[in-house]
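F.,

This is the one I mentioned.
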């Protein structure tokens, strides 16, 4: 089914525009809430992925978080300079860089479950449980999962 045609397409009413606007709102609110921890919402994704064992290399993080490798390198440099993570070469394959959170990085990761839900719940406050579940289902369908 074609939902858009040249005649009915309006930028500010398109799904892409609304998804981008929603993403930007969440990022701005999350960044404000994370200011005290001195990390950004994209950096939060890296810290949580490492803490939860979802990824352990820059390439795995790039795939998981849908971030190009150049930007990932810059974000990892920033987190390393803040003392939150460390890089090491793989003993099996010197081309592979392994990542691990430092003690400070683990402390920051431990604070994130106290911050992120507050931000997300505030944004979702007008949703019923059923609407929240439906939003998740529709987003999964949209992204093909």
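My design for it:
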């Amino acid at each position: 089914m074609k939902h858009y045609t040249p005649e009915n397409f309006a930028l500010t009413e398109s799904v892409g525009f609304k998804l981008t606007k929603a993403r930007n709102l969440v990022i701005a609110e999350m960044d404000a809430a994370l200011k005290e921890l001195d990390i950004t919402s994209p950096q939060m994704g890296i810290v949580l992925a490492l803490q939860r064992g979802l990824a352990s290399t820059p390439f795995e993080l790039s795939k998981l978080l849908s971030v190009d490798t150049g930007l990932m390198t810059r974000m990892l440099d920033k987190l390393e300079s803040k003392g939150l993570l460390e890089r090491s070469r793989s003993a099996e394959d010197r081309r592979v860089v392994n990542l691990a959170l430092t003690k400070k990085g683990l402390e920051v990761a431990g604070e994130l479950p106290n911050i992120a839900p507050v931000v997300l719940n505030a944004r979702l406050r007008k949703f019923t449980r059923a609407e929240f579940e439906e939003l998740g289902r529709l987003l999964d369908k949209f992204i093909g999962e």
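The first strand starts at residue 85 and ends at 89.

Talk soon.
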